[in-house]
Amino acid sequence: MSISQDFMHAATINLLYAGIAILTFVILERLVYYVYLTTRRTRIAKAIASAVATDASSPLPDLPPGNDVLTTSMQEYVDVQRKGSVTRNRIEDLSAALFLRVDGRINRGLWILDTIVTAAPLLGLLGTILGIMDTFQALSAGGVSDPSAVSRGIGSALFATAIGIGTALYGLLGHNVLHRLGECITEDFKSFLLETTK
Question: Helix, strand, or coil here: 1?
């Protein structure tokens, strides 16, 4: 069974539309998650500031309740230090492990954006090549009786490249914004760990 270039050209364009939908979903999901973490971060910062003002030598805050990764990680860190029998090396190992946990949770899904940004222009180029091949095959079968039909065929083929580049730009913008927002949250978490270390 042979698959026509026209079908493959249409399939690549549909794949790019699917990529745009996936990009939109991931960007919105991460934005909502980051906004939620930002509100939690503000509450944790207030609790730490209050603990520092009370006793700067032992700033172990009473954290607000929450099931997010920032609150649970900070609570684990504070609880271990409150026990008092943990060595300094163990505290440092724990803070590094908690940072990796938070960083992984915050950056989850960003690899999807990175992959689509890389693949979209290539997919668009493939769609254009297939579209041009289909146009040339139609010309060879029927002759060049209508030059406007050739222009339409080439224009339709180039449409795939345009969608591919547009998808990559959209994903790149979303990736960079999300990456910067996530970086701010992880930097603040690292600051929280340092501030609450006894």
Answer: coil
Residue 44, pLDDT above cutoff 80: yes
List the structure tokens of 92: 């440092």
* Beta carbons of 9 and 127 less than 8 angstroms apart: yes
Q: In sequence order, what DSSP letters do the residues of 57-83 get, joined into one string?
A: TS----PPP--SHHHHHHHHHHHHHHH
Total of domains in the chain? 1
CA 41 to CA 34: how far, in whole Å? 10
In this predicted model, what pLDDT tens digit does every residue of 110-150 receive, in sequence order? 999 999 999 999 999 998 988 888 888 877 776 666 677 67
CA–CA dist 149, 167 (Å, integer): 28
The pTM score is: 0.84
Q: How many angstroms separate the first and last alpha carbons of the chain?
A: 71
What DSSP character marks residue 145?
A: S
Q: How far does CA 133 lie from the centroid of its chain?
A: 35
